[in-house]
Design a protein that fits this description.
Blueprint: H1 3-15, H2 26-34, E1 39-45, E2 48-55, E3 58-59, H3 72-95, H4 103-118, H5 133-151, H6 155-164
Antiparallel strand pairs: 1-2, 2-3
Helix pairs in contact: 1-3, 3-4, 5-6
């Protein structure tokens, strides 16, 4: 089974309530078919763990990768994988409709395609700032002026230190 089909099958199973979160009987069927209960979905896609919530056959944007929000790098990777997951699922479901059309498949296709169009992944890149030679020289001069001020508390030393260290 190719990765897209595996993700699609996992998504179908989760959304369909196979996990046993819904009670049995007519209430379960109606609730499941209408997407009335908020469901949390976690899956692997392209080696990345992706999680999101659905309600009323819509992906709740704020819930996508919410468990990783405290780590910008992980959240960026997860949200970009989620965006690719939604797009790939939409393409797969649109290109390969079931032999017997169902309301559930139509709702799931609409949900994933809406998520593919509407969800915007976070883009973050954390790196060390480049420090120029001029910045290093200005910092060294400020440090020297501050040290001179500690040894010599004259008004001239204070004014020089303030002028050299302005904006730091």
């Amino acid at each position: 089974m190719d990765p897209i089909s595996a993700v699609f099958a996992a998504l179908m199973d989760t959304v369909a309530g196979v996990s046993g979160q819904l009670s049995e009987g007519a209430t379960s069927h109606i609730s499941d078919t209408a997407g009335l209960q908020r469901q949390h979905i976690e899956m692997q896609y392209q080696g990345q763990s992706v999680d999101f919530d659905t309600l009323h056959w819509r992906v709740i944007d704020d819930s996508v990768c919410a468990e990783k929000i405290q780590n910008a790098t992980l959240h960026t990777r997860c949200s970009q994988a989620a965006s690719k997951l939604f797009s790939a699922s939409c393409q797969e479901m649109t290109a390969n409709p079931p032999a017997l059309p169902s309301q559930r498949h139509a709702s799931l296709t609409r949900m994933t395609c809406n998520a593919a169009l509407g969800y915007r992944p976070s883009v973050g890149n954390i790196q060390w700032a480049e420090v120029s030679g001029a910045d290093q020289l200005a910092e060294a001069e400020c440090n020297a002026a501050t040290a001179a001020l500690l040894g010599n508390g004259t008004l001239d030393a204070l004014q020089y230190q303030r002028r050299v260290c302005a904006g730091r």
